[in-house]
Amino acid sequence: MNPTPLLAHLRFPLDQARGRRYPELAHPYRNPFQRDRDRVVHARAFRRLENKTQVFTAGLSDHFRNRLTHTIEVSQIARTVAGVLGLDEDLTEALALAHDIGHPPFGHAGEEVLDRLMRRFGDRFDHNLHALRIVETFENRYPRFPGLNLTFEVREGIVKHSRDFGPGEIPELEEYLPGLRPPLEAQLIDLCDEIAYDTADLDDGYHAGLVTMEGAAAASDKFRELDHAASMQFPGAPERTRMHEVVRGLIDWFVSGLVEGTVGAAAGLSGVAAVREHPARLVQFTPATAAGAAQLKHFLRDQVYESSALTAGRRRSAMQMENLFELLLEHPERLPASYLEESAAQPLHRQVCDYIAGMTDGFFERTCGQWGIL
Ligand code: MG
After folding, report:
1. Mean per-residue pLDDT of the chain
2. For ligand 1, a single-atom ion, which residues have Cβ within 5 Å?
């Protein structure tokens, strides 16, 4: 049943893992990447994903994705891709489950606000670097070490989730092999994330009444083709069911394009060292799937992300976040004493930023409500 793994020779070899910052004894039946996966799942930051907005804020419907269900979808897609390519599924899964834990409340809008506010201090907010601080510092669950003590490869994959960096570019990340590509297991998370959210946003957008079948068919060639095929094969099926059929077909098409594009790009490479030294990332769509993804993104931007239904709420949350940031800068005594003490080595703007970034949407709204922040 299983086809021959296509890139098994490029799988990250577990025996080459650089290990943990604080050495630990081996576990009798879980390898280090399996343990990292479990550590992520048991982290508080992971559970908070349930109450963080993906695109549609909670309260509109119980059926929209939140960041936790999105994460599970990414993880399933990524494991499928890793499996068919013959890569390490445990490393892939650990990275997929961790990929969004650094997101502040209210999705990308929240990230933009925090980054803008931090620039005033010559600093930045980046959700991947924030995720690293979470797993290195903020999660305190073990008596022997701070953070989750994850393997080097998982930490490297977290900081290189969406982009690589050169030597000297990000001083605090010098240990994470600047100038080198991460292993394929890490490279594939970013595009599996894209497959998951493009298709999910289409689905949620449809159920929110922002997307129509006709509109999507006009904007996306692949959607039109799949919708046509579904209409011919299931002429009596309700429109909603046809939509699900098309969304499933799109996921399948993108995943196949990702597998094919990556196998093509990696042809001739001999091992993980060659993956690391390759001048560009190898995990990629075929040109046809990349064009299809661009069409879909364009459509989603106009119909969903920039729709007035979403932008009004986003503007309000952005304003509140800015006001909360200013309030805490002026009144740091409102921060929990234990947090102030733990993070005392950081400048105040960073303490405030990290505190807000760790909030769920719900906690953010309760805090704003209590403090009269409109
Ligand atoms: Mg994501």
Report:
1. 95
2. 100, 193
Measure 262 CA to ligand 1 centroid, in angstroms.
20
Task: State the distance from the centre of ligand 1 to the C-alpha of 189, rounded, in angstroms.
Answer: 9
Question: How many C-beta atoms lie closer than 10 Å to residue 120's C-beta?
Answer: 9
For 368, the token pair is 């704003």
Residue-range domain boundaries for the chain: 30-370
- Report phi then psi at 20, rounded to 5: -100, 160
pLDDT of residue 309: 86
pTM of the model: 0.95
Q: Please, are residues 99 and 161 in contact by the beta-carbon 8 Å criterion?
A: yes
Spacing, Cα 71 to ligand 1 middle (Å): 6
As a whole number, mean pLDDT of residues 75-87 equals 98
Query: From the CA of 99, how far away is ligand 1's center (Å)?
Result: 6
Radius of gyration (Cα) for the chain, nearest Å? 22
Taking the centre of ligand 1 as the mean of its atom positions, its distance from the CA of residue 310, in whole angstroms, is 18
Q: Which amino acid is at 353?
A: C
Assign domain 30-370 one CATH number from 3.40.30.10, 2.60.200.40, 3.30.465.60, 1.10.3210.10.
1.10.3210.10
End-to-end CA, the chain: 58
| Amino acid code (one letter) for 305 | Y
Read off φ and ψ for residue 182, nearest 5 degrees. -75, 165
Q: Which residues pair with 53 in a beta bridge?
A: 66
